[in-house]
Amino acid sequence: MPLSVNLAALTGEDRAAIARFAAVAALAGGAAGAPGPVRDWLATAGADDGTLTAFADALRAPPPLGAALAGLTRPETDLIAFILCLVAAREAGPAASAFADYVAAARALPSTLVRAAERRYRV
């Protein structure tokens, strides 16, 4: 599974699920500055206007963690969710970093993918 992400290649349903989870990841560490880099990453990764709007909406009314995780239905979206956690943790610190570890474990990401994503996205 490649670590370069193209959100435009995902279905609309998957992009919406990623947007909702991105808000959860951005808010996980409690840092006010975390949503900005997450939004920037989404835009760079090919998010369309609808995805960015869904992200903004989810920031205002975040879904419960269980619902956000349940929306991730494919291995590709699980990896993207983990990457989003790593991006958010750059601004949000230790709590967000621990959240990234939780997501990797909860989604049973292979350790090789976790290590590769951490090398590329964790600061």
Structure description:
This protein is an all-alpha fold and 123 residues long. The protein is built from 7 helices and no strands. It has helices at 12-28, 35-44, 49-60, 65-70, 75-92, 94-106, 111-121.
Average pLDDT works out at: 92
Given helix and strand content, the structural type is mainly alpha
Cα-based radius of gyration, to the nearest Å: 13 Å
How large a portion of the residues is in β-strands, by DSSP E?
Answer: under 5%
Uncertain regions: pLDDT < 50 for 5+ in a row? none
Distance between the termini: 22 Å
Main beta-sheet strand count, sense and barrel state: none
Q: What would the principal axes of the Cα set say about the shape?
A: globular
Number of helices: 7
Number of strands: 0
Helix content: over 70%
Spell out the helices and strands N to C: HHHHHHH
In terms of topology, how is this protein built?
Elements: H1 12-28, H2 35-44, H3 49-60, H4 65-70, H5 75-92, H6 94-106, H7 111-121
In short:
The protein is mainly α and 123 residues long.
